[in-house]
Amino acid sequence: MTAAEIIEEIKRLPKGEQTRVIEFARQVGESRPLSPEELGGLAKRMAETQDPAEADLLQEEITRGFYGASIWSFIR
To answer: Domain range holding 14?
Structure first.
């Protein structure tokens, strides 16, 4: 099954089930360290943005992606 097929299946779920899937995906994503390529892409976007709020969000995402969700809750 491809990611596109999974996404289409999620769209067909009742709202309550969609919420559970979204929360699961968020937890999995937060606990997974980012690859060097992903971190580099975020760093490039942070350096190029003119929006201070976006830069702050990207910095948080880089920190969470480097250290993982467990350390993020400690330093925040």
So the answer is: 3-75
